Task: structure prediction
Amino acid sequence: MQRITLCCLLFIGLVAFACNTPTNGSSETSGDMANPQTTTGNSSTTGMDNGKPYTITTLDTTVKSPRKELTGTVNGVEVMINYGSPSVNDRTIYGDLVPYGKVWRTGANEATRITFKEDVKVGMEGTTLPAGTYSLFTLPADKNDWTVIFNKTAEQWGAYDYSEADDVVRVKGSSEELSSPAEHMDFALDGDSIELMWSDLAVRFPVAPAAR
Result:
């Protein structure tokens, strides 16, 4: 009888401990637009909480540059951006880690992937880009001169196997100095533009529905 009572008490104790143990990804910290809110584990943070029409989900925190995914709406167009988010880590970014005159993976590890759910017009030129998923590369001539590249080979590692022959669209992007440097590279949706923010620079390009 005593042995049965003891077993029951141990079982009740284990159940109580399990119910009070927090699950991975339940905590959240706040941030601003240059450093969006992030969460641990496979959880998400919403730009909507700060009046921004997008959500950033951290997919993998086990790598040095966490893999993230932005989903949201820009100028009425549904978009998804999957990217590696490197840190500045006291390094010189533009002209060094990101060299001028060379195609950049625009993130870390795998090339950044961007998905549009409908045909769009991109860039200041308003070039038509069919709905689909593309790898997103950039080519900075200098800090103020950026080309944004949409490549049809969506799945590739960095820019090592990048082929210009697979480019679908190339457009010009604009850049400006950030008032508050971004330690982590992140994307954001603002008005009619997609923005890339890292270090002391923001690079952006407009997006609009092709049917408009």
In short: The two ends are 78 Å apart (CA to CA). Helices lie at 2-19. The chain has one domain: 2-209. Residues 87 and 184 are 4 Å apart (CA to CA).
